[in-house]
Amino acid sequence: MPQITVEYSEVLAEAFDRRGFALTLHSAAAELIGSPLPDFKTRFHAISEAVIGGGAAGEAMIHVDLAILPGRAPEIRARLGDLTLATLCDHIKPGTGVNTQVTVEVREIAGYHKRVLEP
Question: What is the domain extent for residue 93?
Answer without folding.
Answer: 3-108
